[in-house]
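Moderator note: this is an archived Q&A kept for reference. The question asked for a predicted structure of one protein chain; the sequence and the answer are reproduced below.
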Amino acid sequence: MLIKLSYLLLAGLTNGSVYGLIGLSLSIIYGSSRVINFAQGEFAMLGAMCAFFFMVSASLPWPLAMLAMIVVVVLAALALDYGIYRPLVRRRAAPLTIMIGTLAGAIILYGLAFVVWGPEQKFVPPVLSLEPLRIGFLITNSQQLSLIGLFIFFLMLTWYILYRTRFGLSVRATGVNPRTALLMGIRSERIVQFSFMFSAFISGVAGMMIGPLLGGNVGMGLLLTVKGFMAAIFGGLGSPFAAAAGGLAIGMMEALMAGYGTSLYAEPSIFVFILMVLIVRPYGLLGDYEAERR
């Protein structure tokens, strides 16, 4: 019983780390622009598919492949910024219109990826070993553990940037009131651009690391966007750290429901649970606390 629970918690922690990273990325953009980027999961998809392309087709070693992948996802983020976000903001479009624009960007990225790689599942080579690794009575592998390590690393990096640098203060000021921040000499457009690039970097690395475990597929971005959005809403959309915590919670619930019940009803049950939580706490589990902290 204890062994089964431990395996389920490890699986939940791994999946929750991925959902948390996507939720973290979504919340970073939302915090600076008050816009939800529905193309966020496509950055993770590009990370996995570019890893396949550069490591298999181009035969590059994984450090060079990772650098090339980061360049591709950052360029995709810049294209989304310059091609959709900025033109709509300059025309004073409503936030809902901008969010629909990011959804159009997601469809475009999916279509381009479909043309390049097709609908087939691709084998993404692992960065670390997939050989069984025993930790006590648990059996895992280095690639799986690396996702948990990446989750912790990006949490710490985001915290340091936001709360220990003057640039992070500018990011938080832009999120509170971009017009006032602009009057104080903060270049809001640059802040939002950094948010798009940084969040794409996080999601791309997450996609590259989850690809060997789930397989690379051009349709994986939609699922990751939905899970990341659920994580951000559940934890608290206004804070990257609350969104990350929401991703961990969803991963744990998903694993426990699948292990002790059936995976068929896991996602509907989680949606119902999140809805019930939002009725009581509309800002998410940690939304009020993070709002006061800001």
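Archived answer notes: The chain has one domain: 2-293.
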